[in-house]
Design brief:
With 308 residues, the protein is mainly alpha-helical. Helix content is 72%, strand content 0%. The longest helix has 54 residues. It starts with a helix and ends with a helix.
């Protein structure tokens, strides 16, 4: 490539030099054009074409005897040579080799940055980029694979040496696995993993990460009185109104999912919900719960479940 650049530079310099000579010798002092014999100039031009290289710097060639047409022919020849050099440099070599590699490298770098940005903007679902095409089917048809993947994801959620984004992404994938397998909870997806995500929401200095971690918990199918208590604390203490509402939705979700599977938890959840609904000491908390319980029939059902 350096040799090609040198050839281009030499061609440009020689063409410029020839043009300068043409300007200098084409007009006599009396401003009359130089007369030339066409046969002589043609012979000089023909001889110049026989040379494979341009004029070397150390060659002492006199242009005093060259006439106007000969200089024009020389310039045209140099321009043709320069065009050939450019075509060789930017045509065959670059387009077939270097240019193709450069374009591919740019596209790969752009895809890498786009992927990184998507993952940073929404770490909960960043794992989608790397899933194999047959991921769903493999989970359903290969129990050992499903167990191995879930164990690995659970370990990442609990691993505090990983970044919050990595742990949150692992939780998002683990939760998706449970939905694919039609399981609400098992030994891989339990209170401990949900609480680990709640800790991310509590301790993160990144507001976006706090919200996304809470959204994961609010939509968790894991029913546990300790999760419900954490959500209640957020409703009562969190200044962010959106997070208050999201925690309230999570608490209502806990109540709905408790169903008949755990009557004691359901009764406790019903009482906690009513306590906030009737809470006159905090108008914000009361307003959040009333926005979620607009139906009188639902309110009566909650009161019955609470034993009132």
């Amino acid at each position: 490539m350096s040799q090609t650049k040198n050839n281009i530079a030499l061609g440009i310099a020689t063409a410029a030099f020839a043009m300068a000579l043409y300007s200098h010798f084409s007009i006599k002092p009396n401003n009359q054009p130089v007369l030339a014999e066409q046969s002589k100039s043609q012979q000089q031009y023909t001889q110049s074409q026989k040379h494979d290289s341009l004029v070397e710097p150390n060659e002492r060639q006199s242009y005093e005897g060259m006439e106007n047409s000969a200089l024009i022919a020389r310039v045209e020849y140099l321009e043709e040579r320069l065009l050939d050099i450019e075509n060789q440099a930017f045509g065959n070599g670059v387009s077939n080799g270097v240019m193709e590699e450069a374009i591919l490298a740019v596209l790969e770098e752009k895809e890498r940055k786009d992927k990184q940005k998507r993952s940073e903007d929404n770490p909960v679902y960043g794992f989608y980029e790397d899933l194999p095409k047959d991921y769903d089917l493999k989970l359903k048809t290969d129990p050992e694979y499903a167990t191995r993947v879930s164990q690995d994801l659970r370990g990442k959620v609990l691993d505090q040496t990983l970044t919050p984004q990595e742990r949150l992404s692992a939780m998002g994938q683990l939760q998706m696995n449970m939905y694919i397998l039609n399981r609400t909870q098992d030994e891989m997806f339990d209170y401990e993993t949900v609480d680990a995500v709640l800790e991310i929401s509590r301790n993160s200095s990144d507001d976006k990460l706090k919200v996304q971690a809470l959204e994961v918990v609010a939509h968790s199918p894991v029913v546990d009185s300790r999760i419900a208590k954490s959500l209640q604390d957020i409703i009562e203490k969190e200044p962010n109104k959106y997070m208050k509402t999201m925690a309230a939705e999570g608490l209502m979700g806990q109540y709905y999912q408790a169903g008949e599977s755990d009557p004691e938890v359901k009764q406790q959840l019903a009482n906690d919900i009513l306590a906030m609904y009737d809470n006159a000491s905090s108008s914000e908390v009361q307003a959040v719960m009333k926005r979620l319980i607009r139906d009188d029939e639902l309110l009566q059902q909650i009161r019955r479940d609470a034993g009132r």
